[in-house]
Amino acid sequence: MLNTALFLVSGMIALALLLSLWRLIRGTSIADRILALDTLYINSIALIIILGMYMGSPLYFEAALLIALLGFVSTAALCKYLLRGDIIE
Questions:
Q1: b vs e for 60-74, b when ≥16 Cβ sit within 10 Å of the residue's Cβ?
Q2: What pLDDT digit, counting tens, does each position of 36-89 carry?
Q3: Which of helix, strand or coil describes residue 27?
Q4: How far apart are CA 60 and CA 49, in angstroms?
């Protein structure tokens, strides 16, 4: 039962990844593209956590934590670059 649920949820998350990628490519403004990139890495974190649940390995959870950290820093850096024109003052 759990394997079936994980399979269905991973399919839904994969669909969400494709839709986020489409929004990243076809975004109307740079803010839409940054939000799509943010959603893309959040969905990839969810997919990695589901893979870790399926495999039963805690290594995937550490990888998801690392991706979350890098995603937050990159989103903050992109937003700061858009507001001020440079990252480091």
A1: beebbeeeeeebeee
A2: 989 999 999 999 999 999 998 889 999 999 999 998 998 888 888 888 877 676
A3: coil
A4: 6
C-alpha to C-alpha distance for 89 and 87, rounded to whole angstroms = 6
Distances (CA, A) of 34 to 14, 58, 67, 72, 89: 19, 30, 16, 12, 22
- d(C-alpha 88, C-alpha 25), whole Å: 28
Q: Which amino acid is at 74?
A: S
Distance separating alpha carbons of residues 35 and 25, to the nearest angstrom: 12
For residues 79 and 37, the answer to whether their CB atoms sit within 8 Å is no
* φ and ψ of 59, to 5 deg: -65, -35
- Rounded to two decimals, the pTM is 0.82
Please tell me the distance from the alpha carbon of residue 11 to that of residue 14, in angstroms, as a whole number: 5
